[in-house]
Design goal:
3 domains, 8 helices, 3-stranded antiparallel sheet, 14% strand
C-alpha cells in the first residue's frame, strides 16, 4: 500500500481510532528497516590497502618503486655484495649497495669514472646526488656518514626509472652529506678514525708497558704504521692537500724516529724523539677536531625544498646553506596507502529514516485535518 493510499485510509477512519496513524508510521519504518537490514541495500566491503614491505641489503633499505622487483644479478666490479633488482618493463638491472668511500669521485675503485664529470641531480626524495653516465648505464652516488649510497642502473638510456629507484634508497642510522670535493673525505672519516683510535690505544699501552728497548721499538713501529695507513686512506679521499693527512704523516714520522732511537739504545735521542711525538700528537688532535667540525657542518639536515633545475652539469664546490630541519621521518620513506572505495555507506539508511519520519508526520497532519 502506498503512502498516499495509507493517508486516505486513515482519513476515512480517523474517527474510529486516533492511534492508527502511529501504527501506520511504525509499519513503514519497519518495512524500510527490513529492506536495509535484509541486504537489499549493501555497500562494498572495506578493504584496506596493503602496505609494501621494504627491502634491505648491502647496508641499504628501500621500498621498490613500480616496475622493480628483486633479482637480475650480474657481474659488476665493486658490487659483489650488492642488492640486485630488475625492471622487466624497461629491460633494466640495478645494483644497490652502501660502499666505502675510496676516491673523491664517490665511485668504487673498480668502476672508474673515466674522466667524465658527474651530473648533480635532485631526486624526488629532495636530496642531491651525483649521477655518472658510464658505458654500461647510469651510476648514482650519494655520500653519507656510513658510506656512499650507490645505485648502478645497467642498460639505461633514459633516466626516469633509474631516478625513481635511486630516490627510494635509504641508509639506516646514517646522515646525508653535502656533495663536493670533501664529501668522500667526510664519509670515509669515521671508519678510519675508529681504526686509528683502536691502534693508538693498543700501541700506547704496549709502549707504556715496554721494559726493554726492543719492546719500545716494536710498539713505536706499530704506531707509526697505523698513522701511515690512516694518512694514506684519508689522503686518497680528497683532491686537495688536507691538514689531517699531513698531521697523520707527521705523527707517523715521529713514531718512526722514536722506534729508531729505541733500537739505538741511546737515552738522549729517545727522549728527544718522545718530545717530538708529543708535539705531533697535539697537532694531530687539533687537525682531527677541525676536520670533524667541518664534517658535522656538511651534514644535510633535511631534503631540499628549493625549486631548482632537476639536473646541472658538473659537481658543485660551493658551500650551500643547510636547509631548515624537516619533520623527522622514519628511516624508510613509505608512501601513505591510497583511500579505497567501499566501506560502510550510511547515506541510504539515513534517507530511508528521513522518509519514514516524513511519512509519520504527514499521516499525523492528515489526522488533524
Amino acid at each position: 500500500m502506498s503512502a498516499v493510499r495509507l493517508v486516505a485510509t486513515v482519513r476515512s477512519k480517523r474517527g474510529t481510532d486516533p492511534s492508527l496513524a502511529l501504527v501506520a508510521g511504525l509499519v513503514i519504518v519497519a518495512v524500510l528497516a527490513g529492506l536495509a537490514l535484509g541486504g537489499v541495500f549493501k555497500s562494498e566491503p572495506f578493504a584496506p590497502a596493503k602496505r609494501a614491505v621494504p627491502l634491505s641489503g648491502a647496508g641499504a633499505r628501500l621500498q621498490l618503486p613500480a616496475g622493480w622487483a628483486r633479482g637480475g644479478a650480474s657481474d659488476l666490479p665493486g658490487f659483489e655484495r650488492a642488492l640486485w633488482l630488475r625492471n622487466s618493463d624497461e629491460d633494466l638491472r640495478a645494483a644497490v649497495a652502501v660502499l666505502p668511500a675510496v676516491s673523491p669521485t664517490l665511485l668504487p675503485a673498480a668502476l672508474p669514472a673515466g674522466g667524465a664529470p658527474p651530473e648533480t641531480v635532485r631526486l624526488r626524495s629532495g636530496y642531491d646526488v651525483w649521477r655518472y653516465r658510464l658505458d654500461r648505464g647510469l651510476v648514482y652516488a650519494a655520500p653519507t656518514t656510513a658510506g656512499i649510497a650507490t645505485v648502478a642502473c645497467l642498460g639505461a638510456t633514459e633516466a626516469a626509472a633509474c631516478d625513481r629507484l635511486a630516490s627510494a634508497v635509504v641508509v639506516p642510522s646514517a646522515r646525508r652529506l653535502e656533495l663536493g670535493r670533501r664529501a668522500a673525505l667526510f664519509s670515509g672519516l669515521p671508519p678510519v678514525v675508529s681504526r686509528l683510535e683502536a691502534a693508538r690505544a693498543q700501541g700506547g699501552r704496549a709502549l707504556g708497558a715496554a721494559t726493554s728497548p726492543a719492546a719500545q721499538a716494536i710498539a713505536a713501529g706499530n704506531l707509526a704504521r697505523a698513522h701511515t695507513a690512516a694518512a694514506v686512506s684519508l689522503g686518497s679521499l680528497s683532491s686537495e692537500s688536507e691538514r689531517l693527512p699531513r698531521a697523520l704523516t707527521a705523527t707517523a714520522s715521529a713514531y718512526t724516529a722514536l722506534a729508531s732511537a729505541a733500537r739505538a739504545r741511546i737515552p738522549a735521542p729517545y727522549a728527544k724523539a718522545g718530545r717530538t711525538v708529543a708535539g705531533a700528537d697535539a697537532d694531530l688532535r687539533r687537525a682531527l677536531s677541525a676536520t670533524a667540525a667541518s664534517a658535522d657542518a656538511a651534514v644535510v639536515t633535511g631534503p631540499s625544498t628549493a625549486k631548482t633545475p632537476a639536473t646541472t652539469t658538473g659537481p658543485s664546490t660551493a658551500k650551500r646553506p643547510a636547509s631548515k630541519p624537516a619533520s623527522r621521518a622514519p628511516a624508510t620513506a613509505v608512501t601513505a596507502p591510497k583511500k579505497t572505495s567501499g566501506g560502510p555507506d550510511l547515506t541510504l539508511p539515513l534517507l530511508l529514516l528521513f522518509a519514514a519520519v516524513a511519512t509519520f508526520f504527514a499521516v499525523r497532519q492528515a489526522l488533524r485535518q
